[in-house]
């Protein structure tokens, strides 16, 4: 039997949620960003937007006949069968297919998620004895987890392992079989129903918080479109097909442009300095901000990253990140913008002053903000605000 086709509003017909739609599009253009966490109260359209994304997802290269959807252009992430084919000197046959959104129900069992081994056949047939699970289906696709904060801990651990290594390992009775599982992780949650484990929270590259507020005009427009869609879904889709097609083409062009986008050392320095000044935990945010900034430039049809790209990417990446080992709350959008702006100014000055007789860093730019010991100095609130807030929390405890 064929898969039941979901009926959902076209992505371009959805009212509002512009920041969320942008975050999803960036992941569609560049799956290496890795996903997005969507938080907000019930009834805000979180699930509707994710389901609508499926129609816009681009095509990917897969090995013909591979049960795990291996990418023939990525030899480091091939299943056993594809690796044997390559090692024997044969060329992998490839074809293109559209990325899919694969749903992970909360009722999923561990065997359904990671796959199951038929121990009677495994010694004879090897990997063919594996019954693939959801982590096999989701390779080079989108994994969608609704109410991810309610997911059982043992399934969260399996997801964390696969998300970190891009490989799914099934181990039973001393037998281990692995296959690639490189996916975009999209989760939705209602904060009123419980918090997300910090380990899983950090695995979501981007975060968008959606609210329940809509202007009167937006509410009216939303109702009109829903009524029109329910009355005649096919006619409604036809009405919006031009906008859908234009957005698909824009995504394809951006995907092709990614490799040509210039990301200078000044951009990288500004991102690193801002994250350090904000005292963000770990270095994963620096990497994701860089990828998201590059992708947003490509989406706009530009071949160089600018300050606005870095601001947008930083807000999407840092809005759910803990700071100073969890003592500080995530930075506000204003704090993020100010940190990136100041860091960009310092990075540009440093770049302009580069010469064979470069002034040592400790004597450079005495009149303005500089980096000292990894934090903005000379009066910047980022130099002392985090520490003071941290001390207050410690005193309370």
Regions with little confidence, pLDDT below 50 for 5+ residues: 1-5, 358-397
Radius of gyration: 23 Å
CATH homologous superfamily placement of the largest domain: P-loop containing nucleotide triphosphate hydrolases
- Give the CATH class of the largest domain: Alpha Beta
In total, the number of domains comes to 2
Total of helices:
15
Q: What's the average pLDDT?
A: 84
Basic shape: globular
Distance between the termini: 59 Å
Largest sheet: 5 strands, parallel
Q: Strand content of the residues, in percent?
A: 5-15%
CATH architecture of the largest domain: 3-Layer(aba) Sandwich
Please provide the count of β strands. 13
Which bin fits the share of residues in helices? 40-55%
- How would you write the strand order of the largest sheet? 4-7-10-1-11
Structural class: alpha/beta
Describe, in plain words, how this protein is organized in 3D.
With 397 residues, the protein is an alpha/beta fold. Helix content is 45%, strand content 13%. It folds into 2 domains: 11-58 and 99-209, 3-Layer(aba) Sandwich (Rossmann fold); 261-356 and 364-396, Helicase, Ruva Protein, domain 3 (Orthogonal Bundle). It is built from 15 helices and 13 strands. Helix 11 (265-277) packs across helix 12 and helix 11 crosses helix 14. The chain is globular. Residues 1-5 and 358-397 have low confidence and may be disordered.
